[in-house]
Amino acid sequence: MPTLGETLRATREEKRIKLTQAADTTKVPLERLRALEADRYHDLPDDAYLRGAIRNYAIYLGLQPAAMEALYRQARPEEQRQAPLTTVSTRRGIAVVPATAAVLVLVILVLIALVALHVIVL
After folding, report:
1. Per-position DSSP letters for 64-91, written without gaps between them
2. Using CA atoms, how far apart are residues 64 and 52, in angstroms rounded to an integer?
3. Distant-in-sequence, close-in-space partners of 56: CB < 8 Å, separation ≥ 6
4. CATH class (in words) of the domain with range 4-80
5. Angle, CA of 66, 7 and 18, to the nearest 5°
6. What is the pTM of this model?
7. Is the dihedral of CA 28, 29, 34, 35 positive or negative?
8. Alpha carbon 53 to chain centroid distance?
9. Is the pLDDT reported for residue 117 higher than 90?
């Protein structure tokens, strides 16, 4: 039974599509497609990103995405899958304490200025 990479490469070559053309059309980076067709899973990103790329590439080549994902699951065991490339923080971008302190200092300065103005006028 052919591997995922062999299936993708054979289908692409059968349709006479250059790898650079496939990368441009699918928006999947060229190096990622090369690694995918060579079954070099250690050179590929996290599972979630890769499954999307496999689906897009399979659709582009006219293959069944579910069948290609099944080949991928067989070829890349769970323990080999890498951690995500990045993590997104869910914390707020602005710190509440410094902003509150700045507003408090501003209010105190305005009050001092008003008191000084009142003393000068009287």
Report:
1. -HHHHHHHHHHHS-GGGPPPPS-----S
2. 13
3. 26, 27, 28
4. mainly alpha
5. 110
6. 0.61
7. negative
8. 12
9. no
Residue 93 in tokens: 């971008």
Fill in the amino acid letter for 32. R
pLDDT digits (tens, 9 = 90+) for 44-100: 877 788 888 999 999 999 999 999 999 988 887 664 555 555 565 666 556 667 778
For the chain, give every domain's residue range: 4-80, 94-122
Residue 79 pLDDT:
47
Nearest Cα to Cα of residue 31 among 39, 42, 43: 43
Count of all residues that appear for the chain in the document? 122
R_g of the chain computed on alpha carbons: 29
Cα–Cα distances in Å, from 70 out to 8, 51, 73?
13, 10, 5
